[in-house]
Every structure is written in C-alpha cells, then in structure tokens.
Amino acid sequence: MRVSSSQVYRQVTDSLMRNLAEIIRLNTQASSGKKINKPSDDAAGTARALAYKVAIDAGEQYAKNIGDASNAIGFAENTLGSVSSALVRAKELAVLAANGTQSAGSRAAISKEVGQLRDQLLALSNSRFGNGYVFSGFKTDVAAFDASFVYQGDAGTINVMVDRSVMIPRNVTGSEAFGYAPAAEAVVQLDAGRRAHYIPGAGTTVTVEIRAADDTTVLDSFQFDNAMQLTDLLSQALASNDTTRIAALMKPLDDAMGHVSDVRADLGARLNRLDDQGVRLEDTKLATQTALSGVEDADIVSTVSDIAKANTALQALQASSAKLLSQSLLDFLR
Q: Which pLDDT belongs to residue 22?
C-alpha cells in the first residue's frame, strides 16, 4: 500500500501530540498531586470523589453541631447542679426549722435564707448561654420565669442533627427542669393525725391539702408549679411560723431534688451520647478521607516514573520521526 507524505506528516504529528498531551497530563498530576484534575480524567472517579467530599463536609457540620450542643447541654447541666445545691440547702433549713426547739424568731431568720435561695433559683432558671435564655424552649429571647415565678417560655425542644437522620435535643425547658409532675396522688402522715395529700394537676402543678385526722376535712391547701414557688411557700411558712406547712413541704422538696437529679442524669446521658457520636464521626471522616485519597490523589512516585517513560518515548518518537520525515523528503526529491 502506498503511503503519501501527507499521511506520514499527519501520523507523525498525531503521535507527537498524543505524547505531549500525555506528558502534560502527567505533569499536571505531579504538580497538583491529584490524578483527577477535571471530570474528563475519570468520570466515575469524579462522581465518587464528589460523594466523598459531600459526606466529609456533612460530617464536619455534624461535628460542629455536636460541639455546640455539648456546650449548651453542659452549661444546663452545670446550672442544674447549682439548682440541686440550692434545694439541698433549702431542705436542710426546713429540717432545722421543723425542730421543736426552734422559735418563731429563729424560723423567721431562717426564712430569709430560704428567700435568698428562692431568688437564686429564679436567677438560675433565667440563665443565659450566649444570646439566649437556656430554659425558655423556643422563646430564647424571653426570660424563662417572671418575677412571680410563672413560666414564660414554651415547650419547644431544640433538636440538633448530629448525623444523617439522627437528632438530639440540646435544651430542657423550664417546666421540665424546675417543675415535676407526680405520677399519682401521695399521702404523708403529719403530726396530730393530720395528713398531707399531694395531688397532681395539669402540667407540673401540685396541690397540697393538709387534712384533719378524719382525712376529709381540709385544713389548709396550697399549690406550686416549680422550685421557685416551692421555696417561696417554704419561706412564707417559716416567716409565719407555720410548722404544719413546713412539715408538709418536706416531701415536695425531696421530690424536687430527685427530679433535678433525674434531669441532670438525662443531660449527662446526652453528653455521653454526643461524645460517642463525635468519636464515630471522626472515624467515619478518616475512612472517607482515605477513600477520597484513593480515588483522586496521584501516586507521585508512579507519576514521576510515568513522566520519565513518556519523555523517553517522546524522544524516541522525535528521533524516528525526524528520520522518517527526512527519508520522505529525499524520496520526494528523487
């Protein structure tokens, strides 16, 4: 078959261009450290790399969410630690005041300290973390409780996403933290045959009825919704030297302390879960980064070796091409 000079030139040119393109591609890989520098380098690999990058970005956002949630929950847990201490002190004072050796004057003095504890509880209930009130539900721009100890927040639970389809609540509302809802009515025997009935109402409302020995006649009745109202009642009972009320408030104080401990335990469990999730995300991120590297990162040693081979091939091609073109020119001249 006869081969024309133009065919020879075109073949040589094509070969040179392919070799040069390969050298450019390899040099680009070496300089960037990536074997995929544009989608056309590896369409399937590009798709996998994109998926890995999306997963890594999402994991980093989940990690940030975990950090934010851990800080908020840790703050709430520490705050409730102070609430627990205040309630323990209030109970100690109630026990002290219930002692028959105490006088009306000493109980009035004790009432002042209980009043301070009540005010401390109110301040703790209105704690702020960052720019928001911690215990106000979704209404983070509103103090959780007003000066009358009435809850001003809502029942909103702020969930944070810590993994795909995994949400963890980062807050506890004021009603949940500072109030409790008895499962059923309870009765405690007081002195002189009187009984205290603790009757659960709507939400966290507890009505206390102090009944006579016949367990029917109601001698006194009062109610509370939260720890601040509870300690306020105790302070009033101390100031008025009402030993029956003081005795009747012992059980609610115990219940409130137990409830706060339960809430703190729940928050602690959330923190542990967030820690575990954070570790798992780090492991997942490392595995995904390894997979991404396998897809898009160039093997530098192999790439440099390929460049050397391509250069050698190009030099050989240039030499053979020069000889071939020279012969073709001579043939043409003959």
A: 83
